[in-house]
Design brief:
The chain is of the alpha+beta class. A hairpin with a 2-residue loop joins strand 8 and strand 9. It is elongated and about 100 Å long. The chain starts with 11 loop residues before the first helix and ends with a helix. It has nine helices and twelve strands.
Length: 360
């Protein structure tokens, strides 16, 4: 059954909801997708937005699918979504498209939810493609027609503007949050002078370091490792499940040598559990528990003395190049702090030695 233009009403209430959800982009995306599915008499659907560098599509909303993959990414050009984003063309797809020569890297689905018929539109604002949206009818449902595709385009153009506004709004909020986190992290790092002056332990500083690194990269897990000059683990701090802990033992199997081998010729490493090479598994055994990991070396006095690691980025399959840069910059700030700590210790030792000489 095809939908007529008369059937395809722009529900004013739904459109108001989409605009009102500007500060809650996930709700705006879901409202837009649900409305389009309803208007074309679809059953399932999904909606992806293109990143600022025009490299990937990130799934931001889905409906009716058995395995939600919100946050997963598809390279521009890959699969149906990637093809639509690159070509900028709307499509009606009926039957099995896994062997269609236009589409690469498609994983055929054998479950009952596999689409028998789909409509797929690029989301366009001015002359730019900002995302892709699709609606599906699985199983024995009637196939979509070219008329359905054209009718759906009436609201898709409006949804594109609303979706981009929501996307830009959340990107702005994320940037503001990152800047706030960075500012707070700098303040906590600068507290080291007060800690040293009062003769306090560095455990709270280590905890702050891994908490802030985890927040900056929007990760679920973080691990800070510091070894002494003899390659013995001196201290560690871990962030997991919203809490952090520190210690000097209980981390058997961690090796500074393995960490150095992992960073040989690399300023940092971005790993996925499924393709982590043995040298990375030796350096960071925790990769076996997480989907993805980002690590950067902690260099003190020109030597690798530890590492900062974060794992499982919230809402994403992997960490980005921006995360890699951000963590690297933060690690350099941490380096400066520990060089101040070492200088403080050297001066203290020299002062203590001088006092002993004077007493003698």
């Amino acid at each position: 059954m095809s939908t007529s233009t008369a059937d395809f009403d722009l529900d004013p209430q739904r459109l108001r909801e989409m605009i009102m959800f500007r500060g809650k982009p996930d709700m705006a995306y879901k409202s837009a997708l649900d409305h389009i599915i309803q208007c074309v008499d679809g059953r399932t659907g999904c909606h992806a937005m293109i990143d600022a560098k025009q490299e990937f599509l990130t799934l931001v909303s889905d409906a009716g699918l058995p395995d939600s993959a919100i946050g997963s990414r598809t390279a521009i050009g890959d699969g149906v979504f990637g093809w639509v984003a690159r070509a900028g063309e709307a499509l009606v797809l009926n039957g099995d498209v896994s062997k269609d020569p236009r589409f690469t890297n498609i994983k055929p689905r054998e479950d009952k939810a596999r689409a028998n018929s789909s409509l797929c539109w690029p989301l366009r604002v001015d002359d730019r493609i900002v995302g892709v949206i699709s609606v599906n009818r699985p199983g024995a449902n009637p196939a979509f027609s070219q008329q359905d595709l054209e009718n759906g385009g009436v609201i898709v153009d409006l949804v594109a503007v609303i979706a981009e506004n929501a996307y830009l709004h959340t990107s702005k909020l994320e940037r503001i949050e990152t800047l706030n986190t960075w500012s707070e992290a700098q303040k906590r790092l600068n507290q080291v002078d007060e800690i040293l002056k009062n003769g306090g332990g560095l455990g709270p500083l280590h905890r702050n370091i891994i908490d802030d690194a985890t927040r900056m990269c929007q990760a679920r897990y973080g691990l800070f490792l510091l070894f002494d000059e003899n390659a013995t683990l001196q201290s560690w701090a871990e962030h997991t499940a919203g809490a952090s802990a520190t210690g000097v033992s209980g981390r058997e199997g961690l090796s500074l040598r393995a960490i150095k081998e992992a960073f040989a010729g690399a300023a940092s490493v971005r790993l996925c559990r499924d393709n982590a090479q043995p040298k990375y598994q030796r350096a960071f055994p925790c990769i076996q528990k997480f989907k993805s990991l980002l690590a950067t070396p902690l260099i003190i006095g020109g030597e690798i003395r530890g590492a900062l690691c974060v794992a499982d980025k919230t809402g994403q399959e992997a960490f980005s190049a921006n995360d890699e840069i951000l963590l690297g910059i933060y690690a350099d700030q941490v380096r400066r702090v520990f060089e101040r700590v070492n200088l403080h210790e050297e001066l203290k030792q020299k002062n203590d030695a001088l006092l002993c000489e004077q007493r003698d």
